[in-house]
Amino acid sequence: MTMAKALNEGLRRAMEKNKKVLIMGEDVGKLGGVFRITDGLQKDFGEDRVIDAPLAESAIVGTAVGLAIRGYRTVCEIQFDGFVYPAFDQIVSQVAKLHKRSDGVYTMGLVIRIPFQGGIGAIEHHSESPEAYFAQTAGLRVVSCSTPNDAYWTIQQSIEHDDPIIFCEPKSRYWEKGEVDLDNPPQGLFEAAVRREGSDVTVIGYGSSVKTMLRAADTAAVEGTSLEIIDARSIAPLDLETMARSLEKTGRLVVVQEAPHMASIGSEIVAELSERCFYSLRAPGIRVSGYHVPYPPTRIEEEYRPSVDRILDAVDRVMGAES
Amino acid sequence: MIGEELVQLLTPEGERVANSDYESKLGSDEIFGLYRDMVIIRRLCNESTSLQRQGQLALWAPIQGQEAAQIGAGRALAPMDFTFPTYREHGIAWCRGVPPKDMLRLFRATSNGGWDPQKYRHSVPTVVLGNQALNAVGYAMGVQRDGAEEAVMAFFGDGASSQGDVLESFVWAASFNTPTVFFCQNNQWGISTPMSIQSKIPLYHRAHGFGFPGIRVDGNDVLAVYEVTKRALENARVGGGPTLIEAYTYRLGAHTTSDDPTRYRIDAEVEVWKHRDPIERVKSLLVREYHVKTAKFDEVTAEADAMALELREDVLAMDRPDPITMFDNAYAAPHPLVDEGRREMIELGVSVGAHS
Question: At what angle do helices B28-53 and B278-290 cross, to 10 degrees?
């Protein structure tokens, strides 16, 4: 099934399992969300559980905080990445801090779903990668998914988790299909996944970048270079053990992300792995990122987003650094 | 004009005022109880200001002048109601049963909260202006889904009334008809920002634009605040939806102990409001109508003094927390970076009571 359908099924299953699970967002009810992720859920669970919200992101999150205090678990849908900023105050000031401020009395079990990254030819504010803003805030966790199977399970695991989770969905992959195992979760919520084993270079990314990385690995293989592809999945915290295990083997690191590299997740991965694996490194870690400019008009977005070519250039650099 | 401009049941001289909508049916014991609450909370507030001046608190946010607004509202609440305060709701916290020493933990900078919000049904302080209004509406949406007859009260001031979160909370409360009572203490000043640039209309008029009733009550008249709040809460509990109460009052003191109000407001204005003192007017009523003797007032003063002394001792005994506790409750579930920080601190040998 598609990632969109997998998310829909995951949400449905979470709502069936726990009556305290609610969905709230703009157009999530009758319309089923602009991406149809919540399609049919209001019809089946009612308007009290799938709530069509007035158009105010701070309120979507701010009321979900109150609902959490009352014992509900709300899945907030932010319609597009670029619209999450009105809710930033509530996320950083309340969602992230109330568990601590209440000495653990309040459980901020809520999920904020954000369709992120570009690649769909949208207009401005619809293609951003805001994950680092949230990863920097203590009290929050940030996860992503890259396959339908992951999407189906991680959305359920996120809803069950007692900490607040920013759930980043690669919107350009919503309509891509993949096998979904409805019985067994592939792994824990905060574990990275080795998507393809290799021996020469460790390539780490998340969300929409993972598929691009796999295509780069296909091309590299033809040229005789073996890439190990790691899907970080969890952005905060990072599963550094899985990443380090790979880097100890390959000695070369390339990190891929759509966000600009300044103070980014990719920078954090390079810094952490440089500390942990310094004596195994055969070249400095390289980040392949979006450029440090506002997200461009999407007619030229493919020159902004990390492409197969740019990833392979980085692979060449870490390979060449040795000779 | 919508309804009567200002609900008042007691003049500043403590004489009863007839009102077509509201009537106080409280007896002498109950009114004396409100008087006692106000005297105690003012005394505790003064003691806290002194503690700050003596270097024992990082900051204090005084409520002098606003005692009637807070005690009137606080005593109108039912035990199962839930309240979302700012950092200045000491009178509400008192009515909810929060121990005074716990109210001071935030200001002694030993905690970012201070009490168990579920135990007292009084949420932890919110310092970012207006956030709590949305949290209150969300909580009220939960009350609706539980089918409970409980009201939820959101506190904020005239300053926060300009915040988007407060205005968004009005939209949501109206759209979902939530059992929320918005209690705005208009104390005329947001630090140095006067009401005149916060709003071109009386704040309570705003509610009508959002689709629910707004009412202005004399915030220095504890009987009026009590009755107006009680009715709004009862209405909310039975599905009548939200109400905005504007308690028209005045901050006699500084915004906080870091503020110097002489830089932005004139003494004459303060003097006018001193003559509207919320405690004196109830005292006048108790003397005139119920012939309460001086000795009984003196007992309350003595009780308040004793509590202030106890508070002082409690605060002085309140030591800095063990630094390792900063890692507790940052997350509900284990987190590798928190664990890493904790390990590092343990290895560095930081221990309880280490000051350097």
Answer: 150
Option in A101, A141, A240 nearest B113 (CB): A101
Distance from C-alpha of B261 to C-alpha of A278, rounded to nearest angstrom: 58
Indicate whether B314 and B333 sit together in one domain. Answer: no
- Residues of the domain holding A18: 3-173
Please state whether B212 falls in left (phi above 0), alpha (psi between -120 and 50) or beta.
beta
Number of separate domains in chain B: 2
Residue B7, in any domain of the structure: no
**Distance separating alpha carbons of residues B267 and A122, to the nearest angstrom:** 59
Say whether both A11 and A142 belong to one domain.
yes
Distance (Å, whole) CA A222 – CA A171: 30
Distance of alpha carbon A133 from alpha carbon A24, whole angstroms: 22
Spatial distance between the Cα atoms of A248 and A83, rounded to a whole number of angstroms:
40
**Which phi and psi (to 5°) does residue B16 adopt?**
-70, 145
Cis amide linkage into residue B194, ω under 30° from 0: no
Contact A69 B138 (CB under 8 A): yes
Interface contact B131-A69, CB threshold 8 A: no
Picking from B113, B133, B337, the nearest residue to A103 by CB comes out as B113
B356 and B214 in a common domain: no
B102 touches chain A (CB under 8 A): no
Tell me whether B336 touches chain A (CB under 8 Å).
yes
Mean pLDDT within B345-355: 71
Domain boundary among A143, A173, A203: A173
- Contact between chains at B139 and A66 (C-beta distance less than 8 A): yes
Q: What is the pLDDT of residues B16-59, one digit of tens each?
A: 999 999 999 999 999 999 999 999 999 999 999 999 999 999 99
Our CA-based measurement puts residue A321 at a distance from the nearest CA of chain B, in whole angstroms, of: 32
Q: Which two tokens stand for residue A301?
A: 């977005």
Contact flag A66-B134 (C-beta cutoff 8 Å) = yes
C-alpha span between A97 and A140 (Å, rounded): 9
pLDDT tier at B351 (50, 70, 90 boundaries)?
Answer: low
A22 lies in some domain: yes
Contact (CB<8Å) B172/A54: yes
The reply to whether B151 and B99 lie within a common domain is yes
Q: Which helix (H) or strand (E) holds A244?
A: helix A240-250
Instruction: Let me know if residue A181 belongs to a domain.
Output: no
Candidates B134, B329, B331; nearest CB to A63: B134
Both B352 and B265 in one domain: the answer is no
By C-alpha distance, which of A38, A114, A49, A47 is closest to A82? A114
pLDDT band at B5 (very low <50, low <70, confident <90, very high): confident
**How does pLDDT run across B239-276, given as a tens digit for each residue?**
999 999 999 999 999 999 999 999 999 999 999 999 99
Shortest distance, CA B79 to any CA of chain A (angstroms) = 16
Number of domains in chain A: 2
Q: Which of A126, A161, A261, A292 is catalytic?
A: A126
Is the CB of B131 less than 8 angstroms away from the CB of A100? no
- pTM for this entry: 0.96
Integer Cα distance of A232 and A239 in angstroms:
7
B308 shares a domain with B335 = no
Sequence-distant (≥ 6) Cβ neighbours of residue A56 within 8 angstroms: A86, B168, B171, B172
Which H/E stretch holds residue A167?
A: strand A165-170
Is residue A88 within a helix (H) or strand (E), and if so which, with residue range? helix A88-89
- B300 and B335 part of one domain: no
Residue ranges making up the domain that contains B325: 321-356
**Distance to chain A for B127, nearest Cα, Å:** 9
**Is residue B106 a part of any domain in this protein?**
yes
Is B116 at the interface with chain A, CB within 8 A?
Answer: yes
